Amino acid sequence: MGVTMGLNLLLLMAMVATNILSLYHLSSTLQTPKPPTPQPVPDHLLHQLHTLRATINHLTRDHPSPSTATAKTTKPDIPSDLLLYSQLSPIASSCHNHPDLVHKYMTYTPFSLCPLDSDLAEALILRGCHPLPRRRCFTRTPPKPTSSLPLNPFPPSLPDSNVLWDKYSCKSFSCLGGKNPNLGFDLPHEVSNFMSYKSELDLPIPQLFQIAKAANSVLRLGVDIGGGTGTFAARMKLYNVTVVTTTMNLGIPNNEAVALRGLVPIHAPLQQRLPVFDGVVDLVRCGHAVNRWIPATALEFLLFDADRVLRGGGYLWLDKFFSKGVDLEKVFGPLIGKLGYRKVKWATANKNDSGGIKNGEVYLSALLQKPVSK
Question: Any stretches that span the bilayer, and where are they (predicted)?
Fold first, then answer.
């Protein structure tokens, strides 16, 4: 007790002495116009200052302010499986920009059925969170799938029972085909695509093979970027050419349709690096999804990624790329020209639908051959 009182008295005297010294220093400063010469701070005072700062920091960490505590309580907890996966493998940096979506995607019961959240997965993928974190749950499958699947990539119809329709407005392929035959689900309508020459913009597949044959070039492997339901890959399969299709669902079962046709869907957005090794494919086709809505810089990266996977002598096919006429001349044409490819085909035509007429848009169909060496 006596020691404590003595220590408190000593601290009180030190505080009073410090205040008196401060008042004296202030009065002398006011009386003298000449600024005082700064005196060095004694080492023991510096040590005390550092001790005080350390104590304040410690108290702040252990006893946060009410506003900080409130913020921490309202922040959602990080799912345990997301924390676990982050210790095993890094996730895409863009995932950190959308923590609420990532937390929702990773909030599930491990070792049980996965949630029906394919729309949430695509929302993250389209925001650049790709590849998604892996999950330890079982993918849901249709309760009564058909026992056999068609070998023909152009069957009369696709089996509805092999798709989980819960997330789709239509509940059958016939509904989708009837709603819009251009979506790619009306297979009798699709069977004639890529086979006939209707305008300068068309490049029928038989003509493509003639071009390759004349150049002593072989077509065996290809990538169809933004290929929808996989009709181009289906047609090339009949020519014994393997084509993988990058496609997104966006409210319709594109990936399911590609797979049911005996083809390989790659669930990847246009901004994603192609999951293919360098210089191994003979053909890259950019379908209707590749158009002027893609920012020029993003399109430039996409084209150079296509160049990365193409072998020397391989072909890049821009199939009915559309943009404003002035942009094709001043932006996209020079951008494509940066590749330094040989122009096998370069055809343009006006886009005559209502949007094309309103915006002064044109189509471009181009077949470009990559140099054998650079």
Answer: 7-26
